Give the backbone structure.
Amino acid sequence: MLTSLFSSSTVTLPGVLLMIGLALALGTLSALFHRKMNHCSQSMFLTLACLPLITGTVILVVNGNLGAGIAIAGSFSLIRFRSAQGTGSEILALFLSASLGLCLGAGYWAVAVILLLAYMLLMLFLRALPLTDKPELLRELRITVPESLDYEGLFDDVLKEHFSAYSLDRVKTADMGSTYQLLYTVTKKAGQEDKACLDAIRIRNGNLPVSLGRIPERSIAM
C-alpha cells in the first residue's frame, strides 16, 4: 500500500492518469478545506487546487534525474521570491499542496492521502481548542489623532470595554506630519456594537477619522 506506483524508471499512461486524478482530487479537497477554515481568496483557492497537479507532474518528469530536479527547485525558488508575503496559514497550506504533489509525483498516493487527512484532523482539533481568537472576530482599527495629542494609553479604557483583546501594531504620520495614524489589531466581543466604540473614540481624538473593519486578506501570487 505504501509502495510507489512507479516502481521502475518507466512511466506508464495509466500511472500518469491516476496521479493526475489524485492530484486534482486531493488539491481540490485541500483548497476547499482551507477556504472553509480561513476564508481565503479565489486566487489562493485556485493556487491550492492546482499546485499538487503541477508539482506532481514536475516530480514525475524529473524522477531519477538529480540535475533536472535541482534546476526545477531553483526555478520554484525564483518564483517564490517574486511573490508577496502571506499569512502563516497560507504558507502552511502552500507547503501542504506542494507536499501532496511531491508524494503523488513519486508515486506514493497512500502517503499523500494520509498526509492530507492528518493535516485536516489536526487543524480541526487545534481550531476547537480555546487557544486563539476566531478569524471572524478579528478586526483592524485605525485611529487618526492630532500631532499635539498624547495618545499613549488614551484609548485603553475604551478598547478594553469593547474588545476582548487589542494590540497597537503600528504608528505612522499623515497629512504632512500634522496627524498620527494608530493601527490596532483587535478582537471583538460578542454583542458589542461598532458604532458605540467609534463614537467613544471620536470624542477623544477630536472627531478625526476612525475606521474599523476586517483585516485585509493577503493572497500569495504564484
About this structure: The helical segments are 13-38, 42-61, 66-81, 88-105, 109-128, 156-162, 194-204. Residues 218-222 have pLDDT under 50 and may be disordered. The radius of gyration is 24 Å. The CA atoms of residues 20 and 53 lie 6 Å apart.
